[in-house]
Write the structure tokens for this entry.
Amino acid sequence: MKGEQTRERIVSTALRLFHERGYASTSFADVAEASGLLKGNLAYYFKTKPELLAAVTDARQQALNVALSGEGDSGSQSSCTRDAPPWEVIERLLAYVEASAEELAMMGCPLGSLSTELGKRGGVDLHMPAAVLLTDLLEWLRAQFARKCSAEDAVGYAEHLLTCLQGAAVVAQATRDPGVVIRQVNGLRRWLAHDAFGSERAKGGASALQPTSAAARAALSKRSKHQ
């Protein structure tokens, strides 16, 4: 049990440091020190840095699965996901991103940032573990849209939504404005209601376009006061 807890602490620490500093700028020694371990003790759990990266991406995937399914780390669709209309399932992703607006404005998207960094520096062996998080998310979105749209539209809609979210994270970080994320998420809600799903989508009206999380509402209110 203690060994499992130590491993989880290492992965959690590496996840945070990779996001804050980047993969290349985070050494084994950095992770060990921040985890309260000696470097040699860290090597007992992870022999190489790519091995640690794989554990970090697995942890990111599990956290995303929890947010999207609401039923833990499952790669398959839960009954809740299968039974809910696709726009309600996609709303889970939008709410997850919206609630992360402050973090995105400070450090950018952990998925996009890591994938971009490793794509430039690390070659295929390092790039793939990070890139798969985005490609899996893209496929998840395509599957949701395909439940109500044509196959061609589902691909384009999935790419549009994920591209908008990634772009919002980049601009939010550049401007240090979490409101960018919140406004773009609400714009995507309008697009889902009026274009992607049209009259099929049950949600609509001004109240549905407001930030759904307390953190998102606070971030938007804080930004408005300074303008």
User: Anything to note?
Assistant: The first helix runs from residue 2 to 21.
